[in-house]
Design brief:
Elements (H helix, E strand, L loop, with lengths): L1 H68 L27 H5 L3 E5 L3 E4 L9 E5 L4 E8 L12 E5 L5 E5 L3 E2 L22 H4 L6 E3 L6 E2 L7 E3 L15 E3 L3 E5 L8 E6 L3 E13 L2 E9 L4 E5 L3 E3 L14 E4 L3 E5 L8 E6 L3 E7 L4 E3 L2 E3 L1 E6 L2 E6 L3 E2 L24 E2 L4 E3 L9 E3 L2 E4 L5 E3 L4 E10 L3 E8 L3 E11 L6 E2 L4 E5 L9 E8 L4 E3 L8
Antiparallel strand pairs: 1-4, 1-7, 2-3, 4-5, 5-6, 8-10, 9-12, 10-27, 11-14, 11-17, 12-13, 14-15, 15-16, 18-21, 18-26, 19-20, 21-24, 22-23, 24-25, 28-29, 30-37, 31-36, 32-33, 32-35, 33-34, 34-36, 34-37, 37-38
Length: 538
């Protein structure tokens, strides 16, 4: 009996000890769970705090940049309570993305470029690099700050495929891919999706229909289109070099304005000197100033939109280390290597002074200009530019340094076409939607026809049924150019020609309704038709 009692007592004690141990284990487990929960909560708080700090840092950075860029606004420090930075949604993951995508605008990069963190060519904070031909989204287009003399280039905020955003000059993007990146162009045209008009204006030209120009007359045999050249016209007469008339006939008036009495006229190619500068005006869709000029026969006022500088091309051998030059294009792209395919480091404003530190020995033709690549230093930047876009003196600015369009105009003073590339009504047969494989450039019989780029005479046909007197040149990159309806041919097959040399004279031979040059650009052994507008200067 005593033994049984002792066993019961032992069982009871063991049960109590076991229960106590279990309670200890449960308590320990609960404490660990609570500790882990606290650690997780702390990590979430730290992550949230870092997120808030990042948001505030971006905000204060924006305020700082805004104050520096616009001191006249007198922006005050803005107190921000970090606790208010809640419910923030990253803009790339915002609600309503599907609807927003319907309004997206896309463009193509024309040259490799390091995107800037700010719309400023002097800024060296880079967001990322875009490649030539890359398709990007245009987020915003900035209006030039003319007050601070920053009108030489528009800027666009773009978004890359990786969702990063940065700024790029507008002249480095287009609604069409670069020439060599385009898909084969078929005879069917007109179905392309274009950017809105406000972005099309950024890439260089506008066109409009005109049957008769008031002050600058162009002889034609069909409808006429004028291509507006974006150029800077100085306010002082001393800043103008000798100027050349680009219209077939330019009216001279007694005073400024188209209402003033006409006292005479001068013809295309006449060289004049500017004696006085008048008011700025837009005539025939062309912006320019009224200029008082003096020629051999007349002295009076003309509309400056029909004049261009008489440029004396510099000998490329004069571009030497230690020499100084001035940018003569509205903007000049500085690249990391001496090649049109190289990455654009920055852009320089027209008339910026540069110092030459090195120069390549090879001479080539780009943008219709024969020169060489030079390594320059300017505004804390160093890099390569094409020497054809700098000059010894400051002067009137040329349109741009768009070396992708490496042909010069085949007719001096070329500003208009009488029949565009693409579908048209055939002027001879009257057939609708007949495909026109080139551009018709109106000019008087005997006008010199210029070589658009260095090349070799591939074919000379004196009596082609449609083209009349036809000359075909072969250029680099397997490109061919056609010059048709000539009245005189001055070259033979196999001749090697330089940019600007005369190969013939304008006529009206073959299938033609009036004197003009029919100009085509083709590629490859099958002579694939290309749009000449993609190669000619703007």
């Amino acid at each position: 009996m005593k033994k049984t009692h002792i066993l019961n007592i032992l069982k009871y004690l063991i049960s109590i000890a076991l229960l106590f141990s279990i309670n200890l284990l449960i308590a320990d487990s609960t404490e660990q769970l609570n500790k882990k929960a606290q650690e997780k909560l702390q990590k979430l708080k730290e992550k949230d705090e870092k997120h808030r700090e990042a948001i505030l840092q971006k905000f204060y950075s924006f305020v700082s940049k805004a104050k520096a860029r616009f001191p006249e606004l007198d922006i005050q420090e803005i107190p921000i309570d970090p606790s208010l930075a809640t419910g923030v949604i990253e803009h790339n993951d915002r609600p309503g993305d599907e609807k927003i995508k319907e309004k997206q605008i896309f463009a193509f990069v024309l040259d490799p470029y390091n995107l800037r963190a700010e719309p400023n060519p002097k800024n060296k904070e880079y967001i990322g690099k875009v490649k030539k031909g890359e398709k990007i989204e245009v987020v915003m287009i900035l209006t030039p700050d003319e007050k601070n003399n920053q009108s030489f280039s528009k800027w666009c905020l773009i978004r890359m495929n990786n969702k990063k955003e940065g700024y790029i000059p507008s002249d480095l993007i287009s609604n069409n891919p670069p020439v060599e990146d385009r898909k084969k162009q078929r005879k069917k045209v007109g179905n392309e999706n274009h950017l809105p008009n406000f972005l099309s204006s950024l890439v260089g030209f506008t066109d409009f229909e005109s049957n008769l120009n008031r002050d600058g007359l162009f002889f034609n045999h069909s409808e006429e289109y004028i291509f507006q050249v974006a150029q800077s016209m100085p306010k002082n007469a001393s800043d103008y070099p000798p100027m050349i008339v680009t219209a077939d006939i330019l009216k001279i008036r007694e005073n400024q304005g188209i209402e003033s009495e006409e006292i005479g006229s001068i013809s295309r190619g006449t060289v004049v000197n500017v004696k006085d500068v008048g008011n700025e005006e837009s005539i025939d869709g062309i912006n320019g100033r009224w200029l008082k000029i003096k020629s051999d026969d007349y002295s009076g006022w003309v509309f400056g939109g029909y004049l261009k500088p008489q440029e004396e091309e510099e000998n490329p051998d004069e571009l030497k280390s230690g020499e100084s030059r001035y940018v003569k294009s509205v903007s000049l792209r500085v690249r990391d290597e001496p090649s049109e395919q190289a990455t654009v480091i920055t852009t320089l404003e027209g008339q910026t002074k540069v110092k030459i530190k090195d120069a390549k020995s090879e001479v080539e033709t780009l943008g219709g200009i024969r020169s060489k690549w030079i390594y320059i230093e300017a505004e804390d930047f160093e890099g390569w530019v094409f020497g054809g876009f700098v000059s010894k003196k400051k002067g009137m600015l040329i349109d741009s340094d768009d070396i992708a369009k490496y042909f010069q105009a085949p007719i001096d003073g070329f500003r208009s076409v009488s029949s565009k590339f693409g579908p048209r009504v055939d002027p001879v047969t009257g057939k609708k939607n007949a495909f026109h494989a080139g551009l018709d450039i109106p000019a008087v019989i005997g006008t010199p026809i210029r070589v658009v780029s260095d090349g070799k005479v591939y074919r000379v046909d004196p009596n082609h049924v449609a083209y009349g007197m036809l000359t075909i040149l072969e250029h680099k990159n397997n490109i061919y150019t056609y010059y048709a309806h000539q009245s005189v041919q001055k070259v033979k097959e196999g001749d090697k020609l330089k940019t600007g040399e005369t190969l013939g004279e304008v006529g009206s031979t073959g299938k033609s309704t009036g004197p003009h040059l029919h100009f085509e650009v083709r590629r490859g052994s099958n002579m694939e038709v290309l749009n000449p507008n993609l190669y000619l200067p703007k």
